[in-house]
Design a protein that fits this description.
- This protein is mostly helical and 83 residues long.
- The protein contains 2 helices and no strands.
- Helix 1 packs antiparallel against helix 2.
- The two termini are 33 Å apart.
Length: 83
Amino acid sequence: MNSQIKNKLIAEFAWLFGIIIVSAALEYTIIVFFNLHPILSVKIQGFIGLVVVAYIIRMVARMGKQGIISFEDEGQEEPGERG
């Protein structure tokens, strides 16, 4: 199980690193070629940050759904479920 988690984390972080590199290159290209106002470049950086955060949330949810990681409250019983 530990090997499966390690391999999945390496793959997910490789995708995350790729997204960051492509986003940074795209941002640099847009800023250089279109000579944007500094406020617009900050908005582009914010959008890239949101994409990265969304990918991290999706990564954790997907790993939980596949059973690679488990959340603390999944195995706990509700107080009214005991017979």
